[in-house]
Write a structure and sequence with these properties.
By secondary structure, this protein is α/β, with parallel strands linked by helices. Helix content is 47%, strand content 22%. It has a single domain, classed as Transcription Regulator spoIIAA. The chain has a five-stranded mixed beta sheet with strand order 1-2-3-4-5. Helix 2 runs parallel beside helix 3.
């Protein structure tokens, strides 16, 4: 039972399973896990545990993480994906990240991790990818790449200016 302090509302403790739902939707040589909700520090163990358990017990050759229904994704999400990717590779399996939301694409792009994963849109059954991808999602990815390029250019200019100041001070 939470203790009540004057002036503070009491909120019930939220369990990770309340924030992230992971569901096995396909098993066999191609195993598909759908994740919905928030992938963060509190919830990432749910996804990692399920993925590693399936890799150990079912030995798929391909593991697909369907992220079309994630609402929130942060650095712990990247860590989770890297851990699952490495666990799959250690077991001679391949990880595919399917239909990442704009939030996922944005975080992966900004951190330079977008190319670290095999990202695919659409489903193997011919169904279209998530509705945001063609317009909003592709635009978000392009915008993130453009922002990253601008940021890298600014850093380069700042480094050049600092080098010039150092050169002038040493003259």
């Amino acid at each position: 039972m939470p203790t009540r302090r004057p002036g503070f509302a009491v909120t019930p403790h939220v369990q990770p399973a309340d924030l992230l739902t992971v569901r096995l939707v396909g098993a066999g040589p191609v195993t598909v896990i759908e994740a919905a909700g928030d992938l963060d520090m509190a919830t990432s163990p749910l996804l990692i545990d399920l993925a590693e358990s399936l890799l150990d017990t079912r030995a798929p050759s391909v593991m697909v993480l369907d992220l079309a229904r994630l609402r929130f994704f942060c650095a712990d999400g990247i860590r989770s994906l890297l851990q699952i990717r490495d666990a799959a590779a250690a077991r001679a399996a391949h990880l595919i990240v399917r239909d990442p939301t704009p939030a996922v694409v944005r975080v992966l792009t900004i951190t330079g991790m977008l190319d670290a994963f095999d990202i695919r849109t659409g489903r193997s059954d011919g169904a279209a990818g998530p509705p945001w991808w063609d317009s909003e999602g592709a635009d978000a990815e392009l915008m993130c790449r453009e922002r990253l390029a601008i940021h890298e250019q600014r850093l380069s200019e700042q480094a050049a200016a600092a080098a010039e100041r150092d050169r002038q001070l040493n003259v």
